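To illustrate this point, we now present one chain and its tokenised fold:
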Amino acid sequence: MARIAGVNLPTGKHAEISLMYLYGVGRPLAQIILDKLGIERNRKIETLSESELDLIREELKSYVIEGDLRREVQQNIKLLQEINCYRGQRHKKRLPVRGQRTKTNARTRKWKAVAIANKKK
């Protein structure tokens, strides 16, 4: 099992898809990395040699991924809350930040609806 940046990559998948398991690595970045290193996108992770995995690890060091990226995102959100801007206020209240409606369809952000007991009669 290949381990990159503290994440176990699934062995039965193509290299392009497996790299997407890293936080901050999407399909375009995975394709760029593999093309730059000359590794075929459709090779399975289990068929990659240790030297090829080392090349991938070295290439990923030039990008902000995993824990560093998560920390950076959380710091940005904290800054928005501290300066008390509109987006920061929405984050504090756990409401949608990007202009979505909240009268309906905000269940994932506003948590589960609480039923009022004995309302129906």
Q: What stands out?
A: The chain has two domains: 1-83, 89-121.
